[in-house]
């Protein structure tokens, strides 16, 4: 009697499914986390073609047409991915080792000087963060940001900390502690804090321009980002500051257009001194990341949020895990730049729909944004010192 053989595909499918299950269970194969923001369509008024300039009047209209209770109710099911951000202050104090930790910053390019301080942290821990080898002559940890840490560490020597907040996020291979922008790193640091933009003029204009809708500023003219910006800005009235595609008559023209944005008459201003103030005169700010990768959400977006404008964003696919709900226009969700430009123009003439992009701030609906700020550079000293303390500082055993 002959036995009929089964087609090989009838065996292959179950075997492949079983193998995939094993890989997932062993964490050998991982998929990036996905945020699942609740789609929220901005409220439309009965007279959408209503150009406006006064932002506070738009807020009043929104209050009468919609209001915070309805907005909160619509967003009750909003559920960003909690695992995209480390939870600050979540661990028990019982694991704290040494009660005072000193961190000496050895190599850096952009770490602000005003981060240097003696901090009183949770669990009775004190933390000295400094760039001075005099103040920290026997540090518990050495922080390297733009140079490689030593390839070897002997017992009794400071722990080696390496920080890379760029999109590449590459550990050096020689560090004991790695600081990056991702929740999977030893210590996560987001771009959401205020220390990235201290000493700036935070005057926020109540008047928005109607003739020019979009603000754009870039002085690092990367081909891919520039190309996207050029194509979109050709479709909407815009002002381009900075070196890339400048159309306002030169660099540092913001103070000519908006003299109220001057910080001081005592020194020559830098373009970043009045960045937020200048942005605030526009209804929209174009924010394009240098690299579009998971969880890489930089100051480009947070600057726009802080300025009281609506960001038009191209960047991290899980951006909603780091920002308030209904706070940005996600450019990737439109089928074309033409469709995006049409939406922006309509929104600019609809005060109620436009005001809804500011409702998160006025109604206290912030999603993961609070966690993003809590895990920012502002709190890094205490969080790093706690990590160093739990490892034992200089007493940590070399592996």
From TrEMBL:
Protein name: Fucosyltransferase
Pathway this chain belongs to: Protein modification; protein glycosylation
Source species of the chain: Dioscorea cayennensis subsp. rotundata (White Guinea yam)
Gene: LOC120277384
The protein's Enzyme Commission number: 2.4.1.-
SUPFAM superfamilies cross-referenced by the UniProt entry: UDP-Glycosyltransferase/glycogen phosphorylase
Molecular function (Gene Ontology), one example: alpha-(1->3)-fucosyltransferase activity
Cellular compartments annotated: Golgi apparatus, Golgi stack membrane
Domain of life: Eukaryota
Fucosyltransferase C-terminal domain location: 210-392
Record family assignment: Belongs to the glycosyltransferase 10 family.
Topology term for the membrane: Single-pass type II membrane protein
Class of enzymatic activity (EC top level): transferase
Annotated Gene Ontology cellular component terms: Golgi cisterna membrane
Keywords of this entry: Glycosyltransferase, Golgi apparatus, Membrane, Transferase, Transmembrane
PANTHER family on file: ALPHA- 1,3 -FUCOSYLTRANSFERASE, ALPHA-(1,3)-FUCOSYLTRANSFERASE 10
Family annotation (Gene3D superfamilies): Glycosyl transferase family 10, C-terminal domain
